[in-house]
């Protein structure tokens, strides 16, 4: 064993990530993980990592909490409150609620797409640590579900408001594609959308290929042996394995494929709207019931997954013996928090318009504003 230890110490990697470790394992059929861990005592801590402030730092975790809290509070909770407890202010509240949902959808998209793209880059170009992979797989799914929740409700509220003027007669599936980019002349639709499509497509394939190798059956035995060798980290590695079993590559890939298709379909939307054959509609009561059930269910799923991700983060930080970098504030963390300032400004604007409706509309009323003053029929 001493000879093995001496030889292993000669080749202990200084920068050991998951991919590097798997390459070491698969490069030699006789590679012994237990002997390697004994020879290189820093292996377990290196594979665990010290966190990543731009992925799981305190700042971005605050941003995740804002995203989840706002999506649930102004999503299914606000909708059910407005629907179940009508007030004399409904004529004004529903249009304002639609505006809040519009802003919430756009801010969710502006936060979800960059994080997902960054995850693809991290998995494709670097050798991420155990903690980075497990945390990212959970958090990207959480963000995608938040985006889905607010999109579904915004479709419902917007089409109901238009229906109150006789413009529609049910829920149009075209809204599912159109909603985030309702202003087709906006810079986000013309420039950022195609860039996001190209970026996601470029990094999706290498990420998927790398993930299949990393999370496939071939590495299961490697994980189990590593857990036994690094018995100090057994609890954390057990949680990591469970997280990966829940967030398999196919589900994660489908999320990004569907979002890429969503963006790519924008040029076809206006043409489809001109033909009634493409306006597939379902009855409004059924649409409302389905929308509420979908949003409530996925909101519960979001809370459950995010709670698990925070438990995993706390366990990892405890294992790092105070060496974690996740509590250090950085540029990316501050940007992530301030990304939600537009939503705060929209909420303040709506609060002012509720208290002073005439003053808020004075001098800036448009035909669209006149339409927005009509309540949803009950």
- Strand order, main sheet: write it out: 1-2
Question: Can you tell me the number of structural domains?
Answer: 2
Secondary-structure-based class equals mainly alpha
Q: What is the beta-strand fraction?
A: under 5%
What gap, in angstroms, lies between the N and C termini?
78 Å
Spell the H/E element sequence: HHHHHHHHEHHHHHHEHHHHH
Q: How can the largest sheet be summarized?
A: 2 strands, antiparallel
Radius of gyration: 25 Å
Shape: elongated
Helical stretch count?
19
- List low-confidence stretches: 1-10, 166-207, 276-280, 359-378
What's the pLDDT, averaged over the residues? 67
Number of strands: 2
| Residue share in helix | over 70%
Can you walk me through this structure?
- The chain crosses the membrane at residues 58-82, 109-127, 133-157, 187-209, 254-273, 285-307, 329-348.
- It comes from Cercophora newfieldiana.
- This is Transmembrane protein.
- Keywords: Membrane, Transmembrane, Transmembrane helix.
- The chain is mostly helical.
- It has two domains: 1-43, no CATH class; 53-372, no CATH class.
- The chain contains 19 helices and two strands.
- It has helices spanning 2-10, 18-27, 33-39, 43-48, 53-56, 58-84, 90-125, 130-163, 174-178, 187-215, 220-229, 234-246, 249-264, 266-273, 284-319, 331-338, 341-355, 357-361, 367-372, and strands spanning 171-172, 281-282.
- Strands 1-2 form a two-stranded antiparallel sheet.
- The longest helix is centred in the N-terminal third of the chain and has 36 residues, at 90-125.
- The protein is elongated and about 75 Å long.
- 35% of the residues are buried.
- Residues 1-10, 166-207, 276-280 and 359-378 have low confidence and may be disordered.
């Amino acid at each position: 064993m001493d000879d093995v230890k001496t030889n292993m110490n000669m080749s202990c990697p200084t920068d050991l990530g998951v991919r590097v470790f798997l390459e070491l394992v698969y490069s030699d059929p006789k590679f012994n993980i237990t002997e390697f861990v004994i020879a290189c005592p820093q292996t377990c801590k290196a594979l665990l990592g010290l966190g990543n402030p731009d992925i799981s730092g305190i700042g971005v975790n605050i941003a995740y909490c804002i995203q989840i809290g706002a999506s649930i509070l102004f999503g299914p909770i606000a909708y059910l409150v407005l629907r179940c407890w009508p007030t004399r202010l409904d004529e004004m509240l529903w249009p304002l609620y639609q505006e809040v949902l519009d802003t919430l959808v756009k801010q969710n998209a502006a936060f979800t797409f960059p994080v997902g793209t960054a995850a693809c880059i991290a998995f494709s170009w670097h050798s991420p640590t155990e903690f980075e992979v497990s945390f990212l797989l959970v958090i990207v799914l959480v963000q995608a579900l938040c985006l889905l929740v607010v999109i579904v409700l915004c479709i419902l509220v917007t089409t109901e408001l238009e229906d109150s003027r006789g413009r529609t007669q049910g829920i149009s599936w075209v809204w599912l594609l159109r909603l985030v980019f309702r202003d087709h002349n906006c810079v986000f639709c013309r420039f950022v959308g195609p860039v996001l499509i190209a970026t996601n497509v470029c990094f999706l394939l290498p990420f998927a290929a790398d993930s299949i190798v990393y999370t496939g059956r071939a590495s299961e035995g490697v994980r189990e042996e590593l857990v036994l060798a690094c018995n100090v980290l057994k609890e954390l590695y057990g949680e990591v394995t469970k997280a990966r079993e829940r967030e398999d590559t196919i589900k994660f890939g489908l999320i990004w494929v569907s979002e890429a298709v969503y963006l790519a379909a924008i040029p076809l939307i206006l043409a489809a709207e001109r033909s009634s054959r493409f306006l597939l509609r379902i009855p409004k009561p059924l649409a409302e019931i389905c929308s509420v059930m979908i949003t409530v269910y996925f909101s519960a799923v979001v809370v459950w997954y995010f709670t698990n991700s925070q438990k995993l983060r706390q366990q990892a930080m405890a294992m790092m013996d105070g060496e974690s970098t996740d509590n250090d504030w950085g540029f990316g963390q501050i940007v992530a928090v301030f990304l939600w300032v537009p939503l705060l400004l929209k909420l303040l604007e709506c609060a002012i318009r509720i208290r002073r409706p005439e003053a808020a509309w004075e001098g800036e009323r448009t035909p669209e504003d006149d339409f927005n003053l009509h309540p949803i029929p009950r």
